[in-house]
Amino acid sequence: MKTKTILLAGTVLGAFATSGVALVAVTHAMVDQRIADNQYQAMQRKLAAILPEGASDNDPLRDYIQVEARELLGTDATQVYRVRHGDDPVAVVLEPVVPDGYAGPIRLLVSVMHDGTLGGVRVISHHETPGLGDKIEEAKSDWVYEFKGKSLTDPPPEKWAVKRDGGEFDQFTGATITPRSVVNAVKNTLIYVQNQGDRLFEPASEAAEQPAGDKDR
Predict the structure, then answer these.
(1) DSSP string of 122-186?
(2) Among candidates 60, 179, 37, which has minimal Cα distance to 111?
(3) CB atoms within 10 A of CB 114
(4) Per the domain annotation, does 79 fall within a domain?
(5) Can you tell me the distance from the alpha carbon of 199 to that of 67, in angstroms, rounded to the nearest whole number?
(6) I need a labelling partner for 55 at 20 to 30 A (CA). Which of 64, 120, 176, 209 fits?
(7) 3-state SS of the chain: helix, strand, coil percent to 5?
(8) Do 9 and 77 belong to one domain?
(9) How far is 199 from 130, CA to CA, in rounded Å?
């Protein structure tokens, strides 16, 4: 009798343990999915902010490739989202990294239209000094809006610098390193897209046949 009671208790405890583990697993999966959904929606809003309204009818977050171009894009692996309207390429949106920010790397989101002009630039994350370098955030200033419509010919390459260095872009009072680094990173992104030509805009099946990264060539 005593043995049966022990076995029954063990069975009950085992069932509770199994149920508890299953509940934790299901809850964890639901939370992870919710986080993923929120991140997806947040990214969609960021893309919409740097692209012309109604410019695309595809989902760039599902139509992307990963390239390797540390010298120009600041990191070993960079996402490139392709924006299309029907079969026509509209833009590419890249996630370059500014490796030489004042307080550490700065992650950007840069849209380059098919004609080589900038659709816009946004800062995804940074560690710049509050009240100084953090003015690269659109919530802190409109500085980042200066990039819209610019290209490698407007201004010319030698003018892709802050005004203190003889360029056309504003710097911040007391903080020149941050805007200087961002301007250079955006310029390098434009150079990369120009160097790659239409390969970045090709459908995934075609792009997969050619190395879109080409190691900065």
Answers:
(1) EEEE--PPTTTGGGGSTTT-SGGGGGTT--SSSS-GGG-SBGGGTSSB--BTTB-HHHHHHHHHH
(2) 60
(3) 17
(4) yes
(5) 11
(6) 209
(7) 45, 20, 35
(8) no
(9) 39
Domain total in the chain:
2
Q: Which amino acid is at 83?
A: V
Can you tell me the mean pLDDT for 34-40? 71
Residues 40 and 70 in one domain: no
In 3D, which of 50, 193, 200, 36 has the Cα closest to residue 123?
50
- Copy the structure tokens of residue 30: 């639901």
What is the longest distance spanned by two Cα atoms in the chain? 92
Could you read off the pLDDT of 107-145 as tens digits, one per residue? 999 999 999 999 999 999 998 888 888 999 998 999 999
Number of residues assigned to the chain: 217
pLDDT of residue 131: 86
Cα–Cα distance for residue pair 109/97, rounded to 1 Å: 9
Is 177's pLDDT higher than 80? yes
In a domain, 54, yes or no: no
Structural domain that includes position 16: 1-49
Among candidate residues 97, 89, 98, the one with its CA nearest the CA of residue 119: 89
Contact 92, 201 (CB under 8 A): yes
